[in-house]
Design a protein that fits this description.
This protein has six helices and six strands. By secondary structure, it is an alpha/beta fold. The chain starts with a helix and ends in an 11-residue tail after the last strand.
Length: 156
């Protein structure tokens, strides 16, 4: 669908609303790659929750916005479907884990323009870190917090 929207008019931005508690890491990286490959700008707007894999997808967007009540969460990769079949399996699982851990860290940290020290201070070795729009803005994970319009109630 993103490729289709891009082919219609690659100068018009695509607005991608992200509300997720996360999902499959490999699938989110596929979405990340698709968004980064599009010619048209993609504006990601986080609302509700932008957690885990959602943060990877948001990081792919050219502009990253958040509604004021959004909850963000970053954690180390989780692989529930990897199993040890042989003694050498643990070495391969470790290799896969390190690859994806480094890749996710690179995507979020570099897109936020955080130094390694700033990343460590904010996230460190925490398995799961929750944060909110003002913190996401300060960290460079989002570019702007959406402001609600002032409504004209006189006509009612």
């Amino acid at each position: 669908q993103l490729f289709e929207l891009n082919s219609r008019d690659n100068e018009e931005p695509i607005y991608l609303y992200i509300n997720t508690g996360g999902g499959d890491l490999v699938q989110s990286l596929a979405i990340y790659d698709v968004i980064r490959s599009l010619e048209c700008p993609v504006i990601g707007i986080a609302l509700g929750g932008c957690q885990s894999a959602g943060l990877i997808i948001l990081s792919s967007c050219d502009l990253r916005y958040s509604y004021p009540s959004t909850t963000f969460m970053y954690h180390n990769p989780i692989f529930g479907d990897l199993a040890l079949h042989t003694p050498s399996s643990s070495k391969e699982i470790n290799r896969i884990y390190n690859y994806y851990s480094d890749l996710c860290l690179q995507i979020v940290r570099q897109r936020a323009s955080l130094t390694e020290q700033e990343w460590e201070e904010s996230f460190g070795d925490n398995n799961e870190t929750h944060f909110f729009p003002a913190e996401a803005l300060e960290l460079g994970i989002i570019d702007k917090i959406v402001e609600f319009p002032k409504k004209n109630l006189k006509a009612l």
